[in-house]
Write a structure and sequence with these properties.
Layout: H1 2-14, E1 24-27, E2 30-33, E3 36-39, H2 53-66, H3 74-77, H4 81-94, H5 105-116
Length: 132
């Protein structure tokens, strides 16, 4: 078993598919990788808003009011009025028919894809690891 795992790791390494953690220093929407500053489009902070003092204070106030727990799925425990307010504001701002907030890019992709594709549809996706 150990020999098989070692062989698999070596194969991935030779194909440049072995994933390893790299040290990254984040600052706003920028991340420093291998000494190079890069725009971090892989995080939820690509606009640099996580460092905005107004948002930090609003987040602290929200936690003082509502707590820090994420709770559970809206479909399980119910829809909090704050979601309704935020979605109504987004709907008005974007002049859209409706708005729906997802908690991550992954869940947004799952929600959008399952809404748009059917049983017999075919989806093509880029595969492989993008390297910096």
């Amino acid at each position: 078993m150990k020999t098989e795992l070692t062989a698999q790791l070596l194969e991935w390494e030779q194909k440049a598919q072995k994933r390893q953690l790299r040290r990254a220093e984040a600052s706003g929407a920028t991340v420093i990788l291998n000494g190079k500053p890069m725009l971090n489009l892989a995080s939820n902070n690509y606009l640099g808003l996580a460092d905005d003092r107004r948002l930090i204070e609003a987040g602290c106030e929200a936690m003082r009011t509502y707590g820090a727990g994420a709770g559970a799925s809206r479909l399980i425990v119910g829809n909090h009025p704050l979601y309704e307010r935020a979605e109504a504001a987004l709907k008005q701002w974007k002049k859209a028919e409706a708005a729906l907030i997802f908690n991550s890019g992954y869940t947004a992709n799952i929600g959008v894809l399952t809404a748009l594709i059917g049983r017999d549809d075919l989806v093509f996706s880029m595969s492989g690891t993008m390297r910096v």
